[in-house]
Design brief:
8% strand; 99 residues; Complex1_LYR_dom; two-stranded antiparallel sheet; MZM1/LYRM7; chaperone
């Protein structure tokens, strides 16, 4: 389970920070540091907690992070991944009654 999370985090890192060598390297170092720092952990409860944190981080990276590219002095071009783009569902002020 731990190795699977490690691999998943690295795959997500490669998708989220695609074409950004600096961000890819920083994320790789951070993931490796966190796993190395906790590799001697033996408490099942603590391991479960760390796995939950890692899974949450992976979910946030995958669903919330958008790349920005500097195009001008004060301009960023956002580059959302296709899996982040969702259908825009119109908002309805008057909820319908359940029947």
């Amino acid at each position: 389970m731990v190795l699977q999370l490690f691999k998943t985090l690295h795959r997500t890192r490669q998708q989220v920070f695609k074409n950004d060598a600096r961000a890819l390297e920083a994320a790789r170092i951070k993931i490796n540091e966190e796993f190395k720092c906790n590799k001697t952990e033996t408490s099942p409860k603590k391991i479960e907690e760390l796995i939950k944190i890692g899974s949450d981080v992976e979910l946030i990276l995958r669903t919330s992070v958008i790349q920005g590219i500097h195009t001008d002095h004060n301009t960023l071009k956002l580059v959302p991944r296709k899996d982040l783009l969702i259908e825009n569902v119109p908002y309805c002020d008057a909820p319908t009654q359940k029947q």
